[in-house]
């Protein structure tokens, strides 16, 4: 064995070929499972895409670096499932570009946060976490309630998402700025367009508590309230998830 190695080290071409052969074993282990990926990822026929307002909220989540303290991926470990709910399924991240699974939890996992708290709770918490959780080390994001949400670039954001495979229609892209307004103003005429394009279950309300203005707080809370709720596939028995 060592004799073979000793001789090989003296033949540069032979050594290079052996290095390539040995290194490719690791690659094979990474690539081979991808050939069966269609059996691994569950089907979720009723899954909807993010609305323009939720997508804007997602962009704010990325801008503010929330992912540095919060993960969005519940592992299959028992303690995680008991604390956060059903472990995350691959299909639930289907429309996440880029994915926000995260690698560090200073704060809790947020993958199934949607519906856990009221909008008011989120607004108070984001303005100053210490007001609702006295021992919290989370920073305050008070400017979100003051900053008007930028909507003129939303169609471009939807288009970029479509380029990487999210099924936004031309109709959704053209109406993105109006839909962002409509989702946070339930009494406006623009609200109807949101439910017809994104489904009746879509949350349409003044997320920041002020229906006459569209702020970054509206967008971020709309996003937090939909986490884990784009599809109900995880709510079904695991065996049925692939059907
Ligand atoms: C420095 C780390 C840190 C950053 C950055 C951070 N958080 Fe937190 N977050 C925490 C901690 C710690 C908690 C637990 C205490 C609390 O509830 O405030 C928490 C709790 C939360 C909760 C409540 C979760 C639950 O299930 O009770 C939400 C929602 C949340 N954060 C959202 C955000 C959002 C949105 C951002 C970005 C705007 C953000 N966090 C940025 C540390 C952070």
Low-confidence stretches: none
How many structural units, i.e. domains?
2
- The percent range for helix content is 40-55%
User: CATH class of the largest domain, please?
Assistant: Mainly Alpha
Q: β content, as a range?
A: under 5%
| Distinct ligands, ions and cofactors found in the model | heme C
Query: What is the arithmetic mean of pLDDT?
Result: 93
Give the CATH superfamily of the largest domain: Cytochrome c-like domain
**Given the structure, what is the number of helices?**
11
Number of strands: 0
Structure, explained:
This protein has 243 residues and is an all-alpha fold. The chain has 2 domains: 2-40, no CATH class; 52-64 and 110-233, Orthogonal Bundle (Cytochrome Bc1 Complex, Chain D, domain 2), CATH 1.10.760.10. The chain has helices spanning 2-8, 12-31, 37-40, 52-63, 78-84, 119-127, 154-163, 170-174, 176-183, 190-198, 216-224. Helix 4 crosses helix 11 and helix 9 (176-183) packs across helix 10 (190-198). The longest helix has 20 residues, at 12-31. It is elongated. The model has no long low-confidence stretch (mean pLDDT 93). GO terms for molecular function: electron transfer activity; heme binding; metal ion binding.
What's the helix and strand layout?
Blueprint: H1 2-8, H2 12-31, H3 37-40, H4 52-63, H5 78-84, H6 119-127, H7 154-163, H8 170-174, H9 176-183, H10 190-198, H11 216-224
The structure holds heme C.
């Amino acid at each position: 064995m060592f004799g073979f190695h000793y001789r090989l080290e003296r033949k540069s071409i032979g050594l290079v070929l052996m290095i390539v052969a040995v290194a490719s074993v690791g690659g094979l282990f990474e690539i081979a499972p991808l050939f069966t990926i269609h059996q691994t990822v569950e089907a979720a026929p009723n899954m909807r895409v993010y609305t323009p307002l939720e997508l804007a909220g997602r962009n704010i989540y990325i801008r503010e670096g929330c992912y540095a303290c919060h993960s969005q991926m519940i592992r299959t470990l028992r303690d995680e499932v008991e604390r956060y709910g059903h472990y995350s399924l691959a299909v639930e991240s289907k429309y996440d570009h880029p994915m926000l699974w995260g690698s560090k939890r200073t704060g809790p996992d947020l993958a199934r946060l949607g519906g856990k708290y009221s909008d008011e709770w989120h607004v108070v918490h984001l303005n100053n976490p210490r007001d609702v959780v006295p021992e919290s080390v989370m920073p305050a994001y008070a400017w979100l309630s003051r900053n008007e949400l930028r909507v003129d670039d939303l169609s471009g954001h939807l288009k970029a998402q479509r380029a990487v495979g999210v099924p936004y229609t031309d109709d959704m892209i053209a109406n993105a700025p109006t839909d962002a307004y409509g989702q946070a103003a339930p009494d406006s005429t623009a609200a109807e367009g949101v439910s017809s394009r994104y489904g009746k279950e879509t949350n349409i309300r003044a997320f920041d508590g002020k229906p006459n203005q569209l702020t970054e707080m509206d967008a971020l809370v709309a996003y937090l309230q939909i986490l884990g709720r784009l599809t109900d596939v995880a709510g079904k028995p695991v065996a049925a998830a692939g059907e």
